Amino acid sequence: MSKDLLLEIGTEEIPAHYMPSILSQIKDLAHKKLDEANISYESIRSLGTPRRVALLIAGVAEKQSDVSAKNKGPSVKIAYDSEGKPTKAAMGFARGQKIAVEDLVVEDGYVYANVTTIGKDTASLLPDILKDIILSLSFPKSMIWGDQTVHFVRPLRWFVALFGTDVVPFEIAKVKSGRISRGHRFLGTGDFEIPSMKDYEAVTREHFLIVDPEERKQMILQGMQKLADEKGGTIIMDEDLLEEVVFLVEYPTALCGGFDTEFLQLPEAAIITPMKDHQRYFPMRDKDGKLMNLFLTVRNGDDYHLETVQHGNERVLRARLDDAKFFFEEDKKKKLIDRVDDLQRIVFQDGLGTLKDKAQRLEQITTFLNHKLDLGLDDGDLTRLSDLAKTDLLTQMVAEFTELQGVMGREYAMIDGEKQEIADAINEQYLPRFAGDELPQTTMGKVLGIADKFDTITGSFSLGLIPTGSQDPFALRRQTIGILNILMDAGWNLNCDEVFAFILNLLHVEEDKQAEVMSQLNEYFTLRLKNIFQDKGMDYHIIDCVLASDTLNASEAAKRADALIRADLMSQTELLQAYTRVGNMVKDADDTQVNPDLFETEEERALYGAVVAMQANLPQKYAVYDYAGAAEVLTEGIGAINAFLDNVLVMHKDEAVKQNRLNLLTLTFSLIQPIGDIKKLS
């Protein structure tokens, strides 16, 4: 027999961006706790609104499953005496297992107890299980209230806990469970009773609660699309904003508002940012792709007096746009280049100087990268770009709408008559701003972007400001991933260690400390690169193979990993075994000077001849990452390698012959080393 289980946790309004994680957590916890308790069930759903988190578990068994176990005890020699009678050890083990000593069984020289634990009624276990689920939830920030000691995301107000139609009794923070829930804060008629889980969604709907987030999402999308069609517009959709709005409302109703066309003279970003980031509005474009003086938003309620709500939203937006217009007009009165000296007034980071100091470092780093990568950019343009890069942080627009850093820098640079590529790079330096965001597209944007991020990360590490598993206040992890993705996307073969060393010298870090910081940076970047490869689904053998290098080169590692996958080198067991045998012989040796006059055996001569032949054909294969072709060439040496290792004594009594043979093996192994550490592929 089974019953349905309902748990509703009622709270004050939970921050919208916490909700997806909470719903995922509570579902996983329910699976875990019921499985641990050996309570079977059919399915689990997690639903929620800003003021409630609900678990709907169908088909929960009314009784725990019986558990049979075969528990190992002492050895037969210890359990029984010479006459075969049970000793105190056997009797103590049987007593601990709650069975008679004569019920012990003997197998493989040990005694065992076959024990069956009879399952308990589920109803008696649920109070503790539900409490455990609730108190096991974790949040970015928790709070306590009143005289309570319980930490939760927001104050707890009610619990609904029903097993079938019966209340599951428990209490947390002086709040007792029952069957009473609360309706919509404005549209509902107060408290109401929930008969059972099966009635939950229907009863809550009667009180203006749409508890299924996916249903609310579809209501929002359909409502907004209907209005957009009526106005002849296309919604500028933002999935993150949509998710946030879904968890801001319990009963959504879409509405459309407008603003004066005079504001369309502002840069688009100055209009869209106040709409989306500050007011949670969705902008629209017309059929020609131009921004419309209309917006869509979602009310937490029905369509009663919707016009009043619309006008209220319009007034709020107008005030925001009035501010933006004022800031824009004021900012234009002073060119970006005239703000450069003012950068000296703003501290970039304690220990790393001001924004002016950072701009000067950016000039040197971008120039270094330009020549190191042979990009052919004009050094004068890079100097101009570095001077202007952070100047928009001094504008009133960016001070008010910080999300517009770089975006407004580009706008102001174009107004000032700066080169297009410089203006674009000022904006692109901050890309990617979040996971999955676009990467810089211009060469100058890529150079400035990685220079800025390299400077911030290296400087922070030099001060000991290294991110931990839970703390990354300067977003160094995101910036590191940004650098690696830009390098791989651009295909730039850059040794990151050389950049670290260059910046540490700019920062005048003591030489004895540089090695430590370099090691920390290398380890940090390598781990981030490993994570990127894992997210792409690469086999860990391949990842370890290409990352086992003293040189931290993201683009090179990515190209080699892709080449390994295409060549399916891991399946070529004979090739890997032969060259791994050679690698095990030479370890870390690097002397490849071979003297053919010291050869004493045909195997030596044959291997040397094979190596010379392969040397002539491999460079062009490696140059284009043709690892399949390289493998075909390397295969030609398998026979000679095995014959040499099987028949030639490397550790010859003559030191010159011995060293020559080791050098021959080192030379042989060097043929496959451009691929990576092949021993990791086994």
Structure description:
There is one protein chain. The chain is α+β, with helices and mostly antiparallel strands and about 675 residues long. It folds into 5 domains: about 1-65 and about 120-205, Alpha-Beta Plaits; about 65-115, no CATH class; about 215-330, no CATH class; about 335-555, Hypothetical protein af1432 (Orthogonal Bundle), CATH 1.10.3210; about 570-680, Isoleucyl-tRNA Synthetase, Domain 1 (Orthogonal Bundle), CATH 1.10.730. Helix content is about 50%, strand content about 15%. The protein has 25 helices and 18 strands. α15 runs antiparallel to α16. The longest helix has 26 residues, at about 305-330. It is flat. The protein starts with a strand and ends in a 12-residue tail after the last helix. The mean pLDDT is about 95. Keywords: Aminoacyl-tRNA synthetase, ATP-binding, Cytoplasm, Ligase, Nucleotide-binding, Protein biosynthesis. This is Glycine--tRNA ligase beta subunit. It holds the Pfam family DALR_1.
